[in-house]
Structure formats: structure tokens, C-alpha cells
Inverse folding.
């Protein structure tokens, strides 16, 4: 395999074991846990060049590079990271991890509950953005990182970056929160709830303990992903991409039946099937709930300005014009709260027809802005 | 029961039997059919004062008034129709019907297929807006109505009104198409497809012949309706109505579980349950497909201007600012095609935070406009 010269190339994940007790927001406590981690670049002698990449709903630790002997194994934010890319691995030591509750190797519903010797399933405690940040904080300790040069994320990942600046103001120098919001709206929660109900009412869900029944709630997961995709894209992009085109099999004529017919149906079914084949249903539920619960202003009587009072990082906030899930309006709420605290913040509203998923794309202006932000960070 | 003085009061539906052969767009032919119909006001001697009200996805013939001995039986567009209301029954004879394929008494999947003596179920042919307009045309003949004073509808109902002006230009003098679009976008089709897949992959669907199994695909219908509701409302309205409020049962604290917790979840589940208890799953599938297929420009090489070439009606087109399902942009496409044909059209963009469902609400400016349009129609 030949890589572009600015790729990080082949990478290998590692599983880190933590013996610490981790008290969670729910009141439950994890008696030790494991995190799947991947790193790119080298930690410098002063350990000042580390950048933490936080993942969104369906993400994981494999952010950049490729796995040996595995086709199509590119990391989910590969276009961002590498020698010469915006998050330049010649300068930075980049860390990706799979969050607690995930299904890519970190402790989560698929893991064995030491107390019962069976998979946690629905017994896995509900985790929050706060809990993740606390676990990431232990990871920083483990790696000897006193202060992150930056914490970056898009969507739910951006929420973790924001929370870092509130919980551990001394330990993060720059926060990049992209396509995020300071809390979900009723409509946002509504879409998550429909997805959850699709999974939880699937007869194969078995109250979350489908592992014991040797099955998965495939129908529910598939519907959740179809719906998710619809909301991550935009009407315009879907218009450009699919319009009202019929599939090749359908020819030029309406079929007057319920088989797949329009290209957009084909695309959504395909995305749903692909996802349902590998993602864990309990993880999906947990991730949506972490989104719903995220509300850093809540402990401050709902005052977001107050929530950022102790934040010290420099902030880069970005949003995309066609993102209707977390629109620019929502990013501006964050910016206003930061400005009110006289915190150093830059905001970019980036033209894109690709909707919420824009944050994953190498849009030239967006990547130029990120390059600029990262080039100004001293390590 | 005491009615407001501008209510049509108690009403009674009627089932009309048609023995005509009705060839459908799909190539199938119905060998006779029945339509449930309701009327308000009196047909005048010249039979020139009839207004046809076409229903949307989940509507039916009971448009206005109340049923005796039935609680909460108000018609779905009652606020529009009555003596002194915008569609004034002292002047007009108003007709509501349940379309073919419906589940409120007209011939549809729940009806007995004369050929098999069993419910049609999934064997009921796919019906289109064109098919409905053809059936409505036979209804007009039956009632001796040569020309409708107006055909009015919102959403899918508006599409039928538009189709009337194209198929039977001599038989409709005014068309009122509200919150409609000249065809669905890829995103629109996508939402319909998720709803269909929710129903069709419900194990209780049994390929559409759930009647024989004495069950209904309740989970799928419930999900479809939850999703529908989300897209009929707007982010702003849901923010005003629910925000991030927790239910009374939840108190002030997060529950860290998957029971209903936010008010918006409560609302959506309730709407879903209510709908799943009475609506027919096969009808839901048929209605979404009629939406997807609607594209009056299609037989004209995609040229909407051409499609309206023979239209003779006056048009009133209206859209609502917060409607993201069929946004004002989509209504303007209709207006442009009409203007290009030098057809008499007025267009109103109405301020409302209530999303697509606005067309059902008695918004003062909206109702004032409708009053004005109807008052100018000579009968």
C-alpha cells in the first residue's frame, strides 16, 4: 500500500487498563476500566505538544492512518491529521480514544461485567460528557500530560472539548469545538428519542441483553442510522447527490411498489445495513443519552456565561451554514458566553452544503482555518 | 353540547358506492369502490358553490363539525369551515372525503377484496395523487357538480388541488394549495422511507397481511408517527413548547436511564401511541408513496411551467416561514411556474413558528387571507 506523503501511514491501537475507581454522574462507580487509544506523532520532551481528539456519536479511537492487512481502514478524521496536514504530526502528538460505553474496545456494554462475568448489556451505567472528560483526564495523567496543547472535536466531540475547558481549565490551552451546541434543543432530543425507541422496541433488543440471546436488534439500529444520516446531511446536499433519481434497477418508470426505487432510499438502506452490522445497540443508546444530558450551564443555574467563568483556554468555534442539527445559531450561543467572559475566541461560519457532517470533510476554507489555529499554538 | 355559533354543529358521514371501473396509474384497475364523504352547507341551485377539501397524509372525510355521542370529535380543519368562518358554509357547499387507500371507510387496504373475500392488505394497489383526483372527479359527477368553486388542501392535500387544475382545468375555478411543493425533495423522500422501513420491518407487519394474523405493526406505526411529528413541527416551536423541561415524574434531576424523562419524549411517545392505536399501517405506506410519486411535471419532461399550460383556475399559494418540510422556497417554485403561464396567482408567506402543521392552525393573518380569497369567489 502506498500512502500519500502527508499520511500517518500504518497505525496500531493500544488498550490501556486503569485500576482507578471512576465515580460517574449517575451515582454508579466503575471499579477500573479500559480505554482503546491510538496516537500519531511523538510526545515532545516537555510533554507540551499533545492534542486530544474526542469522537462523536459513532466514532472511536481510530482517527487517522490505516490498519495493516485491512482494506478501507482509513481513520475517521484522517484528512485532518498527518505530516503537513492541519493537525500536523511533525509538531503535535495526537491522541484518539474510544470513550467509555463505546463498542470499539473500551469498557462498555459489550465488555464483561466483573461482578457478573457476563456482558454488561443494559446494566452498563449511563455515562455523560463529564464522565468521559474525567476518564480522559486519567488518560492524560497516565501519559504524563499536564496540559493539552489542544482538545478538539466535532458535534458530541466538540462538547467534550468545551467541558474540558470548564472542568480542567489548567490542563487545556486550546479548545476547538466544531459543529457543536451548548445543549440539545427539544427537536434534537426528539430525534434521539425516535432512534432510541426504534432500538428499544425492536423485539431482538431483549431489554438490552440481546447478547445472551445470540442476536442483535438489527432493525432498530438500521432505522436509527437511516434517520441519523438524514439529519447529518442537508436537503441541498441530498438534492445534489440524489435528487429524485431512480435506481438503475428501477429504470425510468415508477415501480408502484415498496421495493427500493429512489436512489436516496438505496443510500439510506445501505448506510443503515452497514451500521447495523457492526455497531452496538446499547452503545448507541448511551451516546444519544450523553448528548441529551450535555448541558454545562445546568450546575450554574442555566447560565452558560457562568459555566465558562474559570475557563482559560483559547477557543476556536466553527459551524457550517447547512448544518440544521447544530446550526451556526447554536455555536454563536457558545461564542457569546465566552466573549462575555473576555475569553479569547475566534468564530468561523463556513459555507457548506454538506450539513452536520461537514465537520468531517476537507473543505478548503475550514482546513485553512484549522491549519492557522494549530500553527499559532506554541508547544 | 353547545356549539360556537360559527360551527357547522353535528355532522353525519355518508358512504357512496361507485360501480365504475377506475384505472389506476400503476396499471391496476379498481372494479368499483366506495368513498366516505361528509358535506357542510347546501349545494345551490346552479351547483356552482361546491368546495372540495382534500386531506393530507393522515386526514379523512371528517373535516368539520362534531359527531353526536362522541367526545372530542371535532373535524380536523374545523376552524376553517362554518357559518362566518373563512370557508363560509352560508355561501359554500363544502365536501370532505376519505381518499382511496385510506383507513376511514373508503376502499383501502382494510376493505375486503371482492376477488379474494379477504382484506386487501398489501395487495391493495399503490394509488397516486392522479388516481385520487380521478376518483374525486367521479364524485363530482355523482353530485352533479360541473365545476368546483374551489379545491383546497394543505400539504398532500394541496398537491391534489394543484393536480385538479392540470387534469380538469374546466372543472375547478379556484385552487388553494397551502404548505405544498411541486414534488418531494430527496430529503422528503428519505423521511418517508425511514417511516416505511419502520413499518415494513416490524415483525408484526407480516408483509402487509397482519389482519390475518390478528395483529398490527404497532411499533412501526408508532415510530413513523413520532418521526412525522418531529418533522411537522419546528425547532423553535418545540423549544417554546417543551424546551429541555423534564416530566413531573422525573422531578428536577436526570434519571440516568431510558424511561421517558424530557417532556418532548413524553409528547412524542404519546402521539405515537395514539396514532398506532387506530391508523392502518398499509394506508400509511400508501400515503407516503403517493407523496413520493407526486410530480406533475414528470409527464412534461420535468417542466412545471409546461404542466400548468392548460390550467385555468385562479391560484392561492401559501407557505409558512418555519415549515422546513415544504418550505416557502418550494411554494415559490409553484408560483413561478404559474406566473410564467400568466395565470392569476396570489402568494402569501405567513409568519409562524409552528412548522408544517401551521396550515391547520387559525393563524389570524392566514385566516384573514383565506377569508378574503373565499369572499371574492363568485358562485
Amino acid at each position: 500500500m502506498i500512502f500519500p506523503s502527508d499520511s500517518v501511514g500504518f497505525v496500531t491501537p493500544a488498550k490501556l487498563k486503569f485500576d482507578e475507581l471512576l465515580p460517574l454522574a449517575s451515582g454508579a462507580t466503575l471499579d477500573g476500566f479500559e480505554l482503546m487509544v491510538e496516537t500519531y506523532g511523538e510526545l515532545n520532551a516537555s510533554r507540551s505538544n499533545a492534542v486530544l481528539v474526542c469522537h462523536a456519536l459513532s466514532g472511536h479511537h481510530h482517527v487517522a492512518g490505516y490498519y495493516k492487512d485491512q482494506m478501507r481502514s482509513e481513520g475517521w478524521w484522517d484528512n485532518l491529521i498527518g505530516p503537513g496536514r492541519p493537525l500536523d504530526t511533525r509538531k503535535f502528538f495526537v491522541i484518539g480514544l474510544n470513550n467509555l460505553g463505546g463498542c470499539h474496545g473500551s469498557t462498555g456494554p459489550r465488555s464483561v461485567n466483573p461482578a457478573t462475568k457476563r456482558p454488561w448489556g443494559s446494566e452498563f451505567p449511563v455515562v455523560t460528557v463529564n464522565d468521559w472528560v474525567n476518564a480522559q483526564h486519567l488518560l492524560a495523567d497516565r501519559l504524563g500530560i499536564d496540559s493539552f496543547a489542544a482538545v478538539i472535536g466535532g458535534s458530541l466531540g466538540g462538547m467534550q472539548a468545551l467541558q474540558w475547558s470548564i472542568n480542567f481549565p489548567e490542563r487545556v490551552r486550546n479548545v476547538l469545538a466544531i459543529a457543536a451546541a451548548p445543549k440539545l434543543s427539544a427537536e434534537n432530543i426528539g430525534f434521539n428519542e425516535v432512534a432510541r425507541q426504534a432500538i428499544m422496541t425492536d423485539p431482538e433488543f431483549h431489554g438490552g441483553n440481546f447478547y445472551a440471546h445470540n442476536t442483535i436488534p438489527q432493525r432498530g439500529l438500521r432505522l436509527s442510522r437511516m434517520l441519523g444520516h438524514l439529519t447529518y446531511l442537508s436537503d441541498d446536499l441530498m438534492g445534489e447527490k440524489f435528487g429524485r433519481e431512480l435506481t438503475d434497477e428501477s429504470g425510468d418508470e415508477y415501480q408502484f411498489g415498496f421495493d427500493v426505487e429512489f436512489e436516496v432510499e438505496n443510500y439510506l438502506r445501505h448506510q443503515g445495513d452497514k451500521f447495523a452490522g457492526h455497531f452496538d445497540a446499547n452503545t448507541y443508546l448511551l451516546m444519544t443519552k450523553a448528548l441529551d444530558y450535555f448541558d454545562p450551564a445546568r450546575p450554574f443555574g442555566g447560565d452558560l456565561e457562568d459555566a465558562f467563568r474559570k475557563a482559560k483556554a483559547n477557543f476556536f468555534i466553527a459551524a457550517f451554514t447547512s448544518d440544521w442539527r447544530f446550526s451556526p445559531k447554536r455555536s454563536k450561543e457558545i461564542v457569546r458566553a465566552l466573549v462575555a467572559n473576555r475569553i479569547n475566541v475566534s468564530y468561523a461560519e463556513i459555507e457548506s452544503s454538506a450539513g452536520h457532517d461537514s465537520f468531517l470533510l476537507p473543505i478548503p476554507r475550514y482546513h485553512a482555518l484549522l491549519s492557522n489555529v494549530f500553527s499559532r499554538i506554541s508547544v
Observations:
- Residues 186-200 of chain B form the longest helix (15 residues).
- Chain B is about 30% helix and 15% strand.
